[in-house]
Amino acid sequence: MAIISTSISFLIITSIILPLFAYVIGILIPASHIVSRSVNLKLPSKRLWDILIDVSKYPEWQPKVEKVTVQEEKDQQTVFVEHSTRKRHTVIIHHQRAPYRCLLRILEERTSIDGQKKIPTFSGSWTFEIIQDKETEDQVTLKITEQGVIRKPIVRVTHLLLFGFHRRIDRFINDLQALIAKEEGKYSSENQGQEKAQQQDEPSNIISHSEQQGEDTPTVTEKVLVEDQESYHSTVLPNEQDTAASHNLVSFDEDLPKNDSTQATADGSLDQQVATNDTLMTESKLVNGWDMVSEIYERPSKKSA
Question: What are the start-end ranges of the E strands in the chain?
Answer without folding.
Answer: 32-41, 65-73, 77-84, 89-98, 102-110, 122-132, 140-149
